[in-house]
Write a structure and sequence with these properties.
The chain is α/β, with parallel strands linked by helices. The protein is built from 15 helices and eight strands. It has helices spanning about 1-15, 15-20, 25-35, 70-80, 100-105, 125-135, 155-165, 190, 230, 260, 270-280, 290-305, 315-330, 340-350, 355-365; strands at about 50-65, 85-95, 115-120, 135-145, 150, 170-180, 205-210, 240-250. The protein has an eight-stranded mixed beta sheet with strand order 3-2-1-4-7-6-8-5. β2 (about 85-95), α5 and β3 (about 115-120) form a beta-alpha-beta unit. α14 runs antiparallel to α15.
Length: about 375
């Protein structure tokens, strides 16, 4: 890896003039290119949800054409042993396969503990729209999200609620493991190394949130990468949290998911649009354009570049220029505190697109 870094440094040194050239693409041209390629969706993050607390925990499960996994997913919750009251809110988001029939069958499954299954059927609204239907009426003191192809680890509900009530924290996060379809069920959690995360991850799942955290929040509809505001907006607010060392969540690695298939799609530029929208909504949530937000944006610029790496050069350059504009708009006089971000910052501030691209490639080769 050091050889790779040295090689890149040599390229930059030998072509110093080329890599310090500033992009000539204007902000209006960049915006026009992206809007023409894949227009910015209209979804927003701020809302007002209804509070009607009747349970200790409400688990929101969006389900669209989930016939392959939904039964395993829901049984992982119905089989939980705990001393609390739990509501599973499944949003059947316009499924056209056997999901509806499977959900009807699961209504007859006797849970091991005080757990109720609620099914809401609607026309297809997408992942965010389905989650937002579940959020419209918050019925649990704590709220959790579970994707229809994932599972809860046995004991997860008891573990997380015990910690939540005892610690009085706003957010409790457990550890997760990843698995694939080819692995036998009985071996998954036992044989996988849990992912120890000592700070809040950007995933909405694997956590429970006090209902007040989500009282004014919804997932922005129409976007890919709709989880971004969880870490960019919500985790910037002064909520207390605790990360547990117990495994609570099983994440299925699905080769058909957006995570694995989006890189060549036009809508991959939603990764920029959602970044822009988050910053636009900061004042609505009472957030400041502070150092945390600035460091987040720099790291997000790297993630965004990775997600659009198979787009044309013009599209990649347009995203770069608009990110440069976000820095100038919201963080004019700020400077990164991270030595690892210094070169990325320099390239963005100086509009050095070629240098930025080379830096991104060097990061990808680490």
């Amino acid at each position: 890896m050091n050889k790779c870094k040295q090689f890149i440094k040599k390229i930059i040194y030998k072509n110093a003039g080329l890599f310090t050239l500033k992009s000539r693409l204007s902000i209006s041209e960049a915006k026009g290119l992206l809007e023409q390629w894949s227009p910015k969706p209209n979804g927003i993050c701020l809302t007002k949800n209804i509070i009607d607390i009747k349970y200790d925990l409400q688990i929101i499960v969006p389900a669209y054409n989930s016939e392959k996994y939904i039964e395993e997913c829901l049984k992982s919750v119905l089989s939980q042993e705990h001393e609390y009251s739990v509501l599973i809110t499944v949003i059947n988001d316009g499924s056209t396969d056997a999901t509806t029939e499977i959900l009807e069958k699961l209504k007859g499954v006797e849970p091991k503990s005080n757990t109720r299954l609620e099914i809401i059927t609607q026309e297809n609204k997408g992942f965010s729209g389905a989650r937002n239907t579940g959020l419209k009426v918050l019925k649990g003191t704590y709220i959790s999200f579970l994707d229809s192809d994932d599972v809860l680890v046995p004991g997860a509900v008891q573990t997380m609620l015990n910690k939540a009530y005892n610690s009085k924290k706003d957010i409790i996060q457990g550890e997760l493991y990843r698995f694939t379809d080819i692995e036998p069920l009985e071996k998954r959690a036992r044989e996988h190394i849990k992912e120890e995360i000592n700070t809040l991850s950007g995933y909405p799942w694997g956590k429970i949130y006090r209902y007040t955290v989500l009282e004014n929040y919804c997932f922005p509809e129409g976007y890919w990468y709709e989880d971004t505001p969880i870490s960019f907006i919500l985790f910037g607010l002064p909520y207390s949290y605790e990360c547990l060392n117990e495994m609570v969540y099983g994440y299925r690695q699905n080769p058909q998911s957006i995570t694995y298939t989006s890189v060549s799609k036009k809508k991959s530029i939603d990764t920029y649009w959602i970044t822009e929208e988050c910053l636009k909504e900061f004042p609505l949530f009472g957030l400041s354009y502070d150092q945390r937000a600035y460091e987040y944006l720099l790291k997000q610029s790297i993630m965004n570049a990775g997600r659009i790496r198979k787009q044309s050069r013009k599209i990649r350059e347009a995203v770069f220029i608009l990110t440069h504009n976000l820095i100038n708009t919201y963080f004019t006089d700020m400077k990164t505190n991270s030595s690892s971000m210094a070169e990325i910052e320099k390239a963005l501030k100086n509009k050095q697109f070629l240098r930025f691209e080379l830096l991104i490639k060097s990061i990808g080769n680490k």
